[in-house]
Amino acid sequence: MRTVSLHFAILLALPLMLGACSHPSGLGQLAGMASAKPSLELATGLRIAEATRNGGDNQAAITLYRQIVAAHPTSPLPLLGLGDALYEGRAFDEAIAAYQAALRLDTGNPDAQVGIGRVNLARNLPGEALAAFDRALADAPQHAAALNGRGVALDLMGMPEEARAMYRQVQTLQPGNRGARNNLALSMLLAGDKEQAIPLFRELSAERSAGQERIRQNLALALGMSGRMDAAAEVARMDLSPEAVKENLAYYAMLRSLDRQADGHAAIARAVNASGT
Fold first, then answer.
1. pTM above 0.70, yes or no
2. Nearest to 115 by CA among 138, 139, 81, 144
3. Which residues form the signal peptide (predicted)?
């Protein structure tokens, strides 16, 4: 098993939540753009770049997207894919530049605004992220990723009820949306509602889907913060090394101690937000 960093086990979204509010890039956006009629060459290039990124070679994908941007300078699609790949590589300034270039070609593109919002969340700028998600929703009021991202920003700004309304709206639009369900559980955990969060995490962890490692570690976090250290360790061991499990249990205990203090929830939010993306 891999040894991972302590903050990986916390996962309260910036990875958690951000991963959940990611938007389709490149070829994946073609279906949603009725006016877009990319050439076969462009579609093929986007397909290859997206497959490369999904296969884990993000740097190679960035190179491919840059080549496609150069070959198709009037299309926003490769710029969106490039922005996503740069975001995943934590090249935030370059990602913002790619999304802004896409907006210059397509001023009402909500996916570009969602990309900017995700970068701002990763930079711990929830107010700026909220503004970007609102711009996306002004053009596409039912954009699930923008609604989900807006919820994350609101959670990080200390407005859990408003955030949960966003996650529930996503679930109305897309019943079963795992990202919104995970974020709802995380919102409850962040607000101290551990006993409500744990069943939601258990339900998600029982499903067969990508991203189960993240869900299981969120469940371990919730169990640990509720004082069920043996159960937390059992779940954590499914993915983490013994050393990482031990480290995470100690961190859960620290968060649990903070949770008993008057300013516990705010302190936990800061600790979770420090995990980055």
1. yes
2. 81
3. 1-20
Domain annotation for the chain: domains and CATH numbers: 6-273 (1.25.40.10)
**pLDDT confidence of residue 259:** 61
pLDDT, tens digit, for every residue of 106-153?
A: 999 999 999 999 999 999 899 999 999 999 999 999 999 999 999 999
What does the alpha-carbon distance between residue 227 and residue 119 come to, in Å, rounded to a whole number?
A: 34
Strands (E), 166-270: none
CA 53 to chain centre: 16
Task: Note the residue count of the chain.
Answer: 277
The per-residue b/e assignment along 4-18, b for 16 or more CB within 10 angstroms, e otherwise, is: beebbbbbbbbbbbb
**Given a cut of 70, is residue 64 above it in pLDDT?**
yes
DSSP string, 114-143: HHHHHHHHHTT-HHHHHHHHHHHHHH-TT-
Q: What tokens does 258 get? A: 């903070």
Cα-based distances in Å from 136 to 38, 56, 58, 132, 151:
23, 28, 26, 6, 13
Per-residue burial over 101-140, b if 16 or more Cβ lie within 10 Å, else e, is bbbeebeebbbbbbbbbbbbbbbebbebbbbbbebbbeeb
Q: What is the DSSP letter of 2?
A: B
